[in-house]
Each structure stands twice: as C-alpha cells, then as structure tokens.
Amino acid sequence: MRPCYRHLLVFGLGYVGAAVARAGVASGFVVSGTVRGAAQFADDGIVRVDFTRADDAVGCATHLLCTVPPDASGDPVLERYGDVIAAAARLRWIGYLSTTGIYGDRGGGRVDEDTEPAPTSDRSRWRLATEQGWRRFADRCAVDLFRLAGIYGPGRSMLDDVRTGKARCVIKPGHTFGRIHRDDVVRSVLTAMQQERAFGVRVLNLTDDEPAESAAVVAEAARLFGVAPPRGVPFDEAVTTMSPIARSFWAESRKVSSQRTQQVLGMRWLYPSYREGLRAILAEQRRERTG
Length: 291
Description:
The chain is an alpha/beta fold. 38% of the residues lie in helices and 21% in strands. The protein has helices at residues 15-26, 55-60, 76-86, 122-135, 158-164, 182-193, 214-225, 235-238, 244-251, 259-265, 274-290, and strands at 7-11, 30-35, 46-50, 63-66, 93-99, 110-111, 142-148, 150-152, 169-171, 176-177, 179-181, 200-206, 212-213, 232-234, 255-256. It has a 7-stranded parallel β-sheet, with helices on both faces. Strand 1 (7-11), helix 1 (15-26) and strand 2 form a beta-alpha-beta unit. Helix 5 (158-164) crosses helix 7 and helix 7 runs parallel beside helix 11 (274-290). The longest helix has 17 residues, at 274-290. The radius of gyration is 20 Å and the shape is globular.
C-alpha cells in the first residue's frame, strides 16, 4: 500500500466507522478500513482490509480511528496492533470512540469533559481501560478520546422502532438520556482530526444539548408519523422483562455536557436535540422514496 500525505485508517467499518470513512474520502483522504474476513470491493473509494492483515495500512496511516468495542479480554485492536501502531512513523492523529457510560451513575447530576470517570458497569470499565491503552501514544501524536452518548441516525432511530411496532414507551419520570446523531459524530471526528495540534490527549463529549426521557422520544417519533404512541409502561413493570444490558443502561442517570467540546471544535450540532434529528431522518426517508 503506497504511502500518501493524508491516509485515514478506520478500524471497524460499522455504522459510524463507514460513515466517517465515506466523509474522509469526500474530504480528500486516502481511506482504508478494516473488515472481518475476505475484503469485499465496493465502489466508494474505501480500501477494505482484513482485520488480521492491516499491518501495512497502519504503517501508511497519518490518521487512525478506532471504532471497535472492547470485551472482557481487552481491546482487540491494541492487542493485535499495539506495537505496530507504536512504530508507525507517519501517524500523527489517533481517535478512539468511547462512551459517556464511563462517567457512571451520577443520580441525574451534570458531568463535563473534566469530570473524573467512575464507571459502574463492566462494559464501561472495559471502555475506560481501553482509553488508558490509547493514551499511551499521546507522547508522539495527538489522541482524541470521543465519549459518545446513544447513537442514532438513518436506519437506526426510534422512527424505525415505531414503524415496525417495536417501540416501547417506558415511563420513568426524571430519568433522561443523552443522544447524538451519527452525522454529528462524523462531523466531530473529521473536524478534530484536521485541527492543527501537536501531541497530547483531549477528551471530547459527543452528546446533544437536551437529555430527554425515553418516552418523550417515542412520543415524538409517533407524532411525526401521525399515529398514537404505544401504551406507556411503568419502569417497575418494564424492568422485569429487560435484558441485563438494558437494565444496566436504565440503572444509570447523568446529564453530560458537550458545550466545551463544541467550542473546541468550533461547531454547533446540526441536531441539538432528538426533535431536529428525527425530523431530518424522516425527511431523508421520504426523499429516498420519492426520488
């Protein structure tokens, strides 16, 4: 793989990773992305590389984004490529997609980029440990730790749940969640990686400006479709049928601020709340059907 001036390597071409990769191509980067198994060709400008054979791509990369989640055994990217990344002479920026879950349960209190993490679930503890692993490269390049709230966007929103009858209107007054539209994640990553910086670590919170109760989002999605929302289910009733992951999700409550992140990046969210985000998704869906 021939070196180039700006080469973005995305570990994990999933929902967000693929969107970042496409935006990177549009911004003039040569873009590689890892997949599992044999690489399939697609006419989108992204060079797909098998995850187990990405050594050359790491060596060429000037920018690297990891979207791969860790598990109980750690971060598979750091496990497989930690030494290769440490030796990558051209690398000048690393981004890691983490989660606001590492702040833990704050009883509905506010946290910001300076708040000390206090994870309460195993998955969040794994994320924090992985953040520490990526921090070790900060003595030689810029490292951005993106802490993401719940991601939604085209094909992955409450609109889809309402349309398919899968939406659940769980009532837990005062229990709010932050969200972030996929396109605002993409804009944040592309902006951050192109800012002039030396080495060091930044924490960037990617969450919208209006944490909201889950039931409010369900109601808005139903309103946009012109249908009645599903029957409200009290949390104490709903929790009895939730998965362990869902129960841990509902066990935590915090309001995460991203004001400093938006200032640092010199931008405002395209979708500062779920209302703007859902309207945009629905408008896009209608354009696609009529186009």
